[in-house]
Design goal:
Chain A is an alpha+beta fold and about 200 residues long. Chain A is built from ten helices and four strands. The mean pLDDT of chain A is about 95.
Chain lengths: ~200, ~200
């Protein structure tokens, strides 16, 4: 691997979803290692006293237009779930539970969860929903539903959230491309160029 | 003119400055009419209870890195003025004072003000500073300093701010490309594609 891309995102972030459909191509193009870091953006918002885009006056209309428009541009499906924003503790823990033994599988699970939430507009909040999506993606849903209650998994997530705050990750998606911070799905073009040129 | 681009910006917005260096090329490429709309983002922030990026915890470090990085990418000069963010009532009024009789000249003045503020890091807040920059750009600074006190000019600016809020312009830069809203300097690529394809 010649490059490393840290990919921070919240499972409830539509722009995180959009980015998740594109990081794979970037990784292939530059033989980059992508490390997926689901975290809880709500913990950061509490710190920064920010509210989700959808709750912000004036911004929400734009947001509801920009996300589907950008999805159409990329040619990826988009459907906003009825419950939005939604809690993502379960999805995050499911990711870290799988990642402990199968990091590649964890990425596949994250993609399945993102696709269910924003490609199909499904409710991915309850444990049963996350377990069902995991089953569809080839995982043992029952083992997963039990595993995400374990203390080590809870602590893995907590450590990731703390680390995200330490690295000043204030939004989703947020990237470190060979250590250089980039915020937003719309910075992927710059990351591409950063890898291509070594920075400027 | 086959296309119309409304370009809303605050003179204190570095991303507005970055965009101002690029809208001309876009206009040429598509024979688009660009209408420059300086307004007071502070009035919107008061409404939305938002604080400038620089004042936001966690975000400010990123912002101070992203803006110069993007400027280098575009090959445009960037220097953050010591006083930032700064009041822009005078710059806005100067724009509308000139625009009343010379719309093309007003754009030239806006470019000169943006360049002084963010290309050279000069203080463009006081009337004397705005008048001096206007002089350098070939305008009568004394006439301008007097003219911006006139009631019609004040009302022109107020009407633009009201119109910006009515159109839900919540940030800077903000565009309407043939009526379609786009937020952010980083949406210029999408605007380019929007004009090229007629939308998607």
């Amino acid at each position: 691997m010649t490059h490393k891309l840290d990919f921070y995102f919240d499972f409830s972030s539509p722009y995180g979803y959009l980015a998740s459909t594109r990081v794979g191509q970037l990784a292939e193009k530059y033989d980059a290692e992508v490390v997926w870091h689901p975290f809880l953006l709500g913990a950061v918002f509490k710190l920064t006293n920010t509210v989700p885009l959808i709750d912000q006056l004036l911004k929400s209309d734009y947001f509801l237009r920009d996300v589907p428009r950008t999805a159409r541009r990329y040619g990826v499906p988009f459907k906003l779930p009825d419950r939005f924003p939604f809690g993502t503790v379960t999805s995050c823990r499911a990711f870290y539970f799988v990642a402990e033994t199968d990091p590649v599988g964890a990425v596949r699970l994250a993609q399945a969860l993102f696709h269910a939430a924003f490609g199909e507009g499904r409710d991915v909040c309850p444990v049963e929903a996350v377990a069902a999506i995991a089953e569809e993606a080839g995982f043992d849903g029952q083992a997963l539903a039990a595993g995400i209650q374990s203390q080590p998994v809870k602590e893995l997530l907590k450590a990731e959230v703390d680390e995200a705050i330490r690295r000043k990750v204030f939004g989703s998606p947020f990237f470190f491309a060979d250590g250089e911070p980039f915020w937003g799905d719309d910075r992927i073009d710059q990351i591409d160029q950063w890898f291509a040129t070594g920075g400027w």
